[in-house]
Queue: 2 jobs
Job 1
Amino acid sequence: MKYTVEAVLASGGRLGKLSQTSTAGTIAMETPMCTLFTKGGSAPHLSAAMLQRISQVPEVACMSLGSIASHHENVREFGKGLGEFSAMKDKVIFTTLHDATAAVASGKNDKGGVAVWGKGGKMKLDPQLYMKVQEAFCPDWFQALSDGDTDKTCGKKRLLKAVDRTLDFLDDIVEMKNESEVLKTSSLIGAIEGGYSVEERRRSAKETAARPVDGFLIEGFEKGHSSVDLFADEEFMTVLTETMVHLPDDKPRMMDAVWSPLQVIRAFRLGIDVFSSAYPHTLTEKGFALTADYSLPPTSQPAKLELEGSKENSASSGFYVDLNDKRFFESFSPILPGCGCYTCANFTCSYLHHLLNTSELLAYVLLTIHNFEQYFKFFARLRETGRQDKLSELEQSLARQEGGQREDVVR
Ligand SMILES: [Zn+2]
């Protein structure tokens, strides 16, 4: 992995180039970017052929260990790594600890290791087992073992422990990676911990940056993936800003959070380069379709306009519509006219409403296609808007769409 900053924006955030070289060649990417969210090694609800129907699919497939770690012996026996095993050999494979959309039980980590959860229940990973799993999977990038089981409620003692443990794990992993033939070309992503303590964040950032890591994953703000809106708390933004100061410019900074386009812009302006695409998946699971308008000024006529006068429907915001709503029974337009995705080109809201109503799996296939298409399009738009120096305008527009009308969106 190689990362270079192309431009630092006056309004915050940076545009960069990320490249990954393997025996198959070099993959060049631009930041800000998102990774492809996966479940059990594939894009949720989609076959490889269906995935190809989506535009601008990220080059990096993010695979969390919870659902796949217990299969590492099979993958080892297969002998060609997780990319081939999951028919994603053309992707950069990035293994992380936890699924951003799944609740994680708290209090299960200790100095001996970290717990992950899959279908078979809890699996405790100590550094040795962790590296055994990574060697079987042979990822292009992998997160170092870390204790991110912290949030705003944690006291100083717990935060100190999280940082210490994570650094100890990192030292063990660096040592084992140096001795591993299989992982010698894999990039190691160090985790930054410290909850809401500026002091511990600073220590974690400085100490991690002093070790041979290729990028940083910032976590430990949200114990158990509680889905709180981190941006509702000014302190989160202060702590994140302070953390960034101590990270070197020439390595990417990542956050694996379930974030709407508006939250992504806010995190990008604070210095995050690489994001998850877990957000569109969470919408899909609820029967929601992403309808945020990224153009300046907004021009599209999303299907939500058909709901005018239905403001009592709290399940719909300006970012998405709830296709379970019975008002879509007779809506014969696509989710988002002009979207260009396979779903919008071929199906009406009425049909999607019917599929959801009858619990047909096709509903989730078609919604995944649309929601991924729109979310991936957002990142292209975010880069373009950054180049045009119009991030504040886009942030304001999205904030208005969310109904926030917040005064504090322009910094
Ligand atoms: Zn669409």
Job 2
Amino acid sequence: MTSLSGGSDNGTRAGEPPQHRVCARCGTETDSIPPTWTCSVENGTRRYFCDRCSRENLRAIESRLDSSWW
Ligand SMILES: [Zn+2]
């Protein structure tokens, strides 16, 4: 058995190679998602943001949450 360090829900699903990801905002590519990257699910589609964009994206997410709370 293999035990992945860190992530729990980031397991591999059949038919979908989890290796290559591209930042949905700036286009930065990565072969393996660092823990600093953020995965955001929008309309059933997974979007990945690099550590830089994640910080800015967090503000947007928080803003969205605030607006939907009101
Ligand atoms: Zn980015």
